[in-house]
């Protein structure tokens, strides 16, 4: 009975929540249609602001639009655009040439447009500001060492460098910087871009990569080192979109054509400062820009704190309950098979163990090309992570049954299925339920990573809080996730009363 009752409970639980989430789930995963323009943004504040501006401008011109916030890095957004998971997102010309097209012969805007057109992608005119790569240090440290240009770093191999993870891997990032300047530093670390600023201010690192439109440059009083070899290209802000958007939404091109040239460096830095340092919601920042620059009344949609928590709770429950239910349905039979046949058991346990060892971020990245962005790739990843504890505990619980008990059941002439159902599974039920409980608790925590690919849940305020340096937002995601994990653990301890025979329960007080 152990293999069916938890499944029934969780399926019913998921069914309870699914109707309330059907709209959100379909919006996050269905292919784009004529009815909804899907606009994506990266994890950076400037990207969120630009995407929000395009979203509100589209709505103001009669185009229903939704903003899929903070979907990840460059590759995830571009692949989502190519696969029609999104219709538009803000990008930079330097990133397009260096990171996306991978062709050194493509340098001019006409060449970029032609190369993108071959992929069914169109590029807007430049918006009016650049967000170039740069290398920065604390001004006091730069003055102490007499550093004003990147080439000066050659004389200081002891400096500790900390770059954003994307910069570490990009062709136009650390590999280019290291090779062209022949930098001798060996203490070079990858970390989150927003955390790098705090590490720099705290003295944990000596230099990091900057974006020239970042408000933190002035806030932390940083020295931007001169790129004296001029290795970094220009990163002019543009929008990338599907080439067929004018056919689907005829009003859209005219609306978006009002934006190029309306941004300048100072305006973008000011908007970034309001969002990151003053923690004004990006939707309000975007609405204020549209009103002051284009005379358009933006439609800022800002949820209250408790409404946000309620929505993220529903999303998190949806991810956890369905992925865990699917894992139980598959993992318990696999565990039974592994216990019955030793050779097959080794293979089954080895396979699920290998899957479990794949880093969660890597597994999510593998899912995106196969399933796109949103709920389903996150759910599949969570499902795969949930298999090992259930399979292993089912296998262990069945194998631990004393041979005399098995032999007694056989002597009584019970068929194999009856022995499994009436004798073996009840005896192994405590171990099986413990495996399901472990998977459930792990699932609750791992589900927070789904926010990186647009799946929502408690990871959404955590990711936003890290980007905005807001401890309140981080706690708004972390604390409910921890409470949910405790509630899940308590739920399975309660289920133990009904699913585990009295003498096999883990807690003597429940006997």
Distance between the termini: 19 Å
Poorly predicted regions are: 1-33
Arrangement of strands in the largest sheet: 3-10-4
- For the residues shown, what is the average pLDDT? 84
Task: Look at the helices and sheets and give the structural class.
Answer: mainly alpha
Number of strands: 10
Separate helix tally: 22
Radius of gyration: 27 Å
Shape field: elongated
**Major pleated sheet:** 3 strands, antiparallel
Helix content: 55-70%
- How much of the sequence lies in strands comes to 5-15%
Reconstruct the topology from this structure.
Elements: H1 5-29, E1 37-40, H2 45-60, E2 65-68, H3 74-82, E3 88-92, H4 93-100, H5 109-117, E4 121-123, E5 133-138, H6 139-145, E6 161-164, H7 165-169, H8 174-181, E7 188-191, H9 193-201, E8 208-211, H10 216-219, E9 222-225, E10 237-242, H11 245-248, H12 251-256, H13 265-276, H14 282-294, H15 305-340, H16 342-357, H17 360-371, H18 375-399, H19 403-411, H20 416-446, H21 459-468, H22 471-499
Parallel strand pairs: 1-2, 6-7
Antiparallel strand pairs: 3-10, 4-10, 5-8, 5-9
Folded structure, characterized:
This protein has 511 residues and is mainly α. It has helices spanning 5-29, 45-60, 74-82, 93-100, 109-117, 139-145, 165-169, 174-181, 193-201, 216-219, 245-248, 251-256, 265-276, 282-294, 305-340, 342-357, 360-371, 375-399, 403-411, 416-446, 459-468, 471-499, and strands spanning 37-40, 65-68, 88-92, 121-123, 133-138, 161-164, 188-191, 208-211, 222-225, 237-242. Helix 2 (45-60) links the parallel strand 1 and strand 2. The longest helix is centred in the middle third of the chain and has 36 residues, at 305-340. The two termini are 19 Å apart.
